[in-house]
Amino acid sequence: MSKFNLSWQATDEQLLDALLLATGGEGGATLQDVLLMIDALDGDVLALQDLEQGLEKLVSAGFVQVQKNKLALSEQFLARYEEVTLNSADETSESPLQKLLSQTSLSEAGIQQAKTETLKKYKLKNYYQQYLEQFG
Question: Where are the beta strands (DSSP E) in the chain?
Fold first, then answer.
């Protein structure tokens, strides 16, 4: 059995949606801005574990990049999101983000690499704790 969750969760979609809105599709956004956007959209505060797992999956899929202390959407993600959005104008059963995530497979090796290389230096727990102290 895999030690990573290799399926997309609703919280992953929330995280991606909030990142889209927080960045406006350009540049990066702080974790605080992303968490505030999730709160504004859904009234939710993601658990640290959901946040960690979501970022690991989104980074491993090549959708999210870490730029210093900010999270940014990749050009690859933006191009695929635009394509899915344009092609799903007639469909109403699932959102473009749901469709895009369902078309993207995850691997244990990819998630492990995202965790140990890309996200290792990003102080996720510190940023999350600061958010909770200020807004939680």
Answer: 28-29, 64-67, 70-73
CA dihedral 98, 100, 102, 104 (to 10 degrees): -150
Question: CB of 59 within 8 A of CB of 114?
Answer: yes
The predicted model scores a pTM of 0.92
Torsion angle in degrees (nearest 10) through CA of 135, 52, 8, 38:
10
Average pLDDT, the chain: 91
Chain-centre distance for alpha carbon 73:
9
CA dist 40 and 107 (Å) reads: 31
Starting at the earlier edge strand, list the strands of the sheet with 70-73. 28-29, 70-73, 64-67
Domain ranges of the chain: 10-135
The answer to whether 123 touches 30, Cβ cutoff 8 Å, is: no
103-118, pLDDT tens digit by residue?
999 999 999 999 999 9
